[in-house]
Design brief:
By secondary structure, the chain is of the alpha/beta class. It has 15 helices and 13 strands. It folds into 2 domains: 334 residues, Luciferase-like domain (TIM Barrel); 72 residues, no CATH class. The chain has a 9-stranded parallel β-sheet with strand order 9-8-7-4-3-2-1-13-10. The longest helix is centred in the middle third of the chain and has 19 residues.
Length: 453
């Protein structure tokens, strides 16, 4: 086993995600960056040149005119990642797919296809859809409640994993001399009948280069944490302080261990934002200017998202934060409850809550290249995370990290110098899952040999 090193992910946000109100105005960003495949390919190749482990494409399927600019018009993740795959060779390709509005067979086939196309670099960010309005795009009157969403998610992933084991690794001899294409004994139906899905199988695609795509998961609710501890290889999260980050990682690893998993095989990779300048003072001033340039009106509108896009413009800004009932119960419930609890605890007005949201994007990773490197190393070695996901928008800002911060971290041995594998699993230090049918046959053979002896 190689020494533990920091994992690196790049989240490609095109013209700007939540809180990035003015990102699209940068002269370095095409106005159509979020639908320009060449923009994504260029960013992915830059990340690969810097030896990043993966790029990350987030997604949702419901919008309002107040949605972040990138959300208003963006490419479907796996279609996009398949295009990027043929222009890259080592970097992992992670896409978001919802378990609430997809079927397991379709998801398993699409991800396995990406894994084959890329030579073993596919990853699945498992989500249950936080935007409740998505239900209306799929013929439902309302979104699933939390127990149903996460019950479906767990079963959905388990079914997909079962389908990925449909073929054993040696199922296709493709022996032209003997005229044998398929070894039928190495093909297995699934015959799954569960609470939410009935899937016969088998999957009509052979075992992939990395056995199964890497499972990512993001969710901070009790249900979300339990799902991550059950099925995820890596957790995508956020943290404000090292203490919070360490506590989250410790808890998730303990949950995984309680489920019989090796906690060292669960990576915690939060999203972080950076501001890098020649000096710490310049970086802090740059961050302050960026925070001050954000639009209060857009922040007020975006506040509605975790509450199921509740319209907060109807309230008096200087009155106490309004009572909104169960708004958010079917959306981003944990985030909505956190906002309401903060408002009650500190007796905040609606204006003050919005202003807090505007300032909430302040990052601990601000300063000169050395200061930022020091802080990243402190969090990594202090047990705060196993890797980081960096939001990528303005190319020159990303270049400051790759050209000025990464060399410092590499010199210190925090980040590896070269790729160690051609697969995402290999570069993340994760094992290839054993095919369940191969494992069962091998176990039976060992038992037979033991009894014969």
């Amino acid at each position: 086993m190689s020494a533990r090193t920091l994992k690196l992910g790049a989240v490609l946000f095109g013209v700007g995600g939540p809180g990035q109100h003015n990102t699209w105005l940068s002269p370095e960003i095409p106005g159509n960056a979020s639908v320009d495949v060449n923009w994504y390919i260029a960013r992915a190749r830059a990340a690969e040149a810097a030896k990043f482990d993966h790029i990350f494409i987030v997604d949702s399927q419901f919008i309002t005119p107040d949605s972040p600019h990138h959300y208003l018009s963006r490419l479907e993740p796996l279609t996009l990642l398949s295009a990027i795959a043929v222009h890259t060779s080592h970097i992992g390709l992670v896409g978001t797919l919802t378990t609430s509005y997809n079927e397991p067979f379709n998801v398993a086939r699409r991800l396995a296809s990406l894994d084959h196309i890329s030579g073993g670099r596919a990853g699945w960010n498992v989500v249950t859809s936080g935007d409740a309005g998505t239900a209306g795009n799929y013929g439902r009157d309302e979104h699933y409640d939390y127990p149903t969403r996460y019950g479906r998610a767990l079963e959905h992933v388990r079914v997909a994993q079962g389908l990925w084991d449909s073929y054993e690794a040696d199922a296709f001899p493709r022996d032209k001399e003997r005229g044998v294409f398929l070894d039928r004994s190495r093909l297995h139906p699934l015959d799954h009948r569960g609470e939410y899905f009935a899937v016969a199988g088998p999957l009509n695609l052979e075992r992939t280069p990395q056995g199964q795509p890497v499972i990512f998961q993001a969710g901070d609710s009790e249900e979300g944490r339990d799902l991550g501890a059950s099925v995820a290889d890596a957790i995508f999260t956020h943290a404000v302080t090292l203490e919070q980050a360490r506590a989250f990682r410790t808890e998730l690893r303990a949950r995984a261990a309680a489920k019989g998993r090796d906690p060292d095989q669960l990576l915690v990779i939060p999203g972080i934002s950076l501001t890098i300048a020649d000096t710490d003072e310049q970086a802090r001033a740059q961050e302050e200017a960026a925070l001050g340039a954000k639009s209060f009106e857009r922040a007020l509108a975006e506040l509605g998202r975790p509450f199921g896009w509740h319209d907060f413009s109807q309230y008096d800004l200087d009155a106490p934060f309004p009572e909104v009932g169960d708004a958010g119960a079917l959306s981003f419930r944990t985030q909505a409850e956190s906002i309401k609890q903060l408002a009650r605890a500190e007796n905040l007005t609606l204006r003050q809550v919005v202003e807090r949201q505007l300032r909430a994007h302040r990052s601990p990773f601000v300063g000169s290249p050395r200061t930022v490197a020091d802080e990243i190393q402190r969090w990594f070695e202090g047990g705060g995370f196993d890797g980081i996901n960096l939001t990528v928008t303005v190319p020159s800002e990303f270049a400051r990290f790759t050209d000025e911060v990464l060399p410092i971290l590499r010199d210190r041995g925090v980040v590896r110098a070269e790729y160690e594998s051609t697969t995402l699993r290999g570069n993340l230090g994760l094992p290839v899952p054993e095919n369940r049918h191969t494992a069962a046959r091998d176990q039976s053979a060992r038992a037979t040999a033991t009894s014969a002896a």
